[in-house]
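request received
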Amino acid sequence: MFSRVLIANRGEIALRVIRACREMGIEPIAVYSEADRGAPYLDLAEEAVCIGPGAPAESYLNIARIIAAAEVTNADAIHPGYGFLAENAHFAEVCRDCKIEFIGPSPEAMALLGDKVSCKQMARKAKVPIFPGSDGEIEEEAEAIEVAAKIGYPVIVKAAAGGGGRGMRIAHNEASLRAGLKSAKQEAVAAFGNGAVFIEKFLEKARHVEVQTIGDRHGSAIHLYERDCSVQRRHQKLIEEAPGPHIDPKKRDEVCKSAARLIKNAEYSGAATVEFLMDEKQNFYMLEVNTRVQVEHPVTELITGVDIVREMINVSAGEPLSYRQRDIKPRGHAIECRINAEDPEFNFAPSAGTVKTWQPPGGLGVRMDTHVVTGYRVPPNYDSMIAKLLVHGDDRDHAIARMKRALAEFKVGPIKTTIGLHSELMNDAGFAKGGVDIHYLERLLKK
Ligand code: ADP
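response:
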């Protein structure tokens, strides 16, 4: 097992990995930018190393500085968390060259599943349901028009290297397809340095259902069931829950097994999330694979009891998975609310500054993942998520009641947060019914 793990990240996920390391008897090493200097969670690490200015390119995205920090602190592995370098295959390769274990998949498996075109090809081979569309990259306009005619409009043009909702265009007819193809390509070149695009059928009304999986280096791969993350705004998830409400047990079984099969066939080791869209008849279509730990992984931890970060560290150290598929028995219902430092009254404008009041909830079935304490200054440089509030209950109604209670206890000021919006959602009749689609929240906010 590793003796020292460097965490190439910040905030709540850095703290999450620090905690897993401590429980495993591993010394966690933190890195921080000047904007994060003095953050209280850094004191919980064995050592903390400044890696540069607040701008991500100068610190958390700077491979040379992170590797240097790992070398001076004698770290034998790096956990990338999520975001920043977590899905950068080049970074995983540099770690390997420097003989530092990257806690995640091999660079090859990451590249294979991280590229949407090669991922879909792999999925087709593994008999994982995918959207009808082009077989691979679309190079000629005529080819796109032919495929669209075959699968029927609307279609969506997507970048092979896409992420964060960029490089996507919806087309309802030939003219908008021609235009969309051009602009998606341009956007993909600018954002990812790779202009490869493909097209697939566009689903008008869908739910976002994703499956947590984990594989080891001995050829085992299991799934930890699904999460529903349909409550989104601008493709950003706001609430996640598990199990997915009203999913037919047979469909659940199929989709979860197909996700595990995909990562097994890809000889993938580490945690991965296979994302799907689900239509009104509960047909599933794979969207993409995230080759890292997800923000919402604790929802799955609450229903399965599996410590996902611990398992990630274990399998990267060459250990076999601690669980077989039949050991995974989900219990109850879990919900996560993302608490962002944003003002929902002002179009979700970021609300950075010093937190003067911080009274987090507690009690039975409540989990808070946060790096914030009273007096913490939220830096303006990074993502606005400052906490994840989770609850676990016997069933969905119980979990909602518990979340309402926990949100009511939660007092934060003077910065603005999404706490009030979450309270409204927990009291919303549509959400209470369960199974809302991915545009539900945006429709609600317009009212
Ligand atoms: P990214 O990597 O940029 O997040 P995804 O492939 O995960 O891209 O898609 C992001 C979002 O775009 C989805 O959550 C969904 O809302 C929408 N989307 C993508 N593909 C489709 C599709 N075929 N039909 C309907 N919506 C889609």
